[in-house]
């Protein structure tokens, strides 16, 4: 029986990546609560306008797509300020309670990514808490003018609850300017919107599909979980939504009462600065020496070709890439999604096509971690006898990804511009999912037979000459080519801020606003 979710109870940004639904611009606003009663009244007013996951369209059970969307989430301190009972607060996860800054060692936020280098909004004030981020509100819009309209609506709601909540400033923008909000938007090329980020990679491919989401059966190939017979099924709902069964056939830990947590989730918000000058220079330097040339090397960094996201597993060289491109051009949207996502690493256990340090292999290894040594030296093969479901280890680490790029790379000869990406990851267990991936798969390589080699793009590469970062670009064990060694990898991405948030259901939002959370 197909699982049905109550889409009226789930916030819209949980089910939808808005950028793929005609919302190329967004604004993220953070607030501090100064008065609990007025703060709850503010939440009540916003809740009336919050966008749910109800399907858009003209059919039965659907609603007209809005010109702009509203969604809301809370940091742990915000929930305290709204007077949630202690018996409910103690049910939230320890990492959510601690907050992202206090988890910096786990996340590898050191050096240029250390909290002292984050945008001023994230500094906070331990004594008065008047600078602490309590509430997150995201506004996504079809047009820039409509985004401004949505922001003015929010400003008016804040004004109506004067003394209860305050919008916090301190987001770095162009020329060191500090704004009261974080604007994000798709990257434009020749006046047209793209799905790329500032390094030039096509982004937003292969987001996980889980039980109960609309039309998941159309998108499950490569985005769900691998089954033993080679088919694909959606992931368990409880990997992403609290109050539902997860891949371990358990309910993920959650606060009480059930109505507070069910259909809610945790959101990881991270502002990541992209060092485009360093990236371009490093790619140029090694692209001149790499046998396949610069663009193939760029594809090896991520596991996908930059121009259209073609996976290296399917298109490992220029010839196969040309054939893939032709197939992609002739496919409809559903066909394109399948071409880009429907693959495994079963035929690439050596990493000869997609390296073990490539971005997509570290973020979602699929079934490739259930490995044993093959007959050839250094080769690995899938151990299908060890697990009932191939990819069982990976299925517990999946993340829903939201967000958009920010700023423009106006001068690619400099790293200090205002450009990067704001990424928001949704998961039911921050430690088991996001933090594990960040610590063990991005900043460490042992699970991939890669020692301490970090993921190429997002790794917290060291500037210390004594411990330079490296990565090996593997080759097919049967070929006569030698592996290529990337040496002294610079830090390409730096953290500029972030926090852990709880995204409540609509039911929970109304309960919070009314002050009627009863854990008994």
From TrEMBL:
A Pfam entry, by short name: DyP_N
Keyword Iron: yes
Record key words, sorted: Iron, Metal-binding, Oxidoreductase, Peroxidase
Limits of the DyP dimeric alpha+beta barrel domain: 9-156
Keyword Iron: yes
Cofactor(s) listed: heme b
GO molecular function, one term: peroxidase activity
Name of the featured protein: Peroxidase
Native source organism of the sequence: Undibacterium amnicola
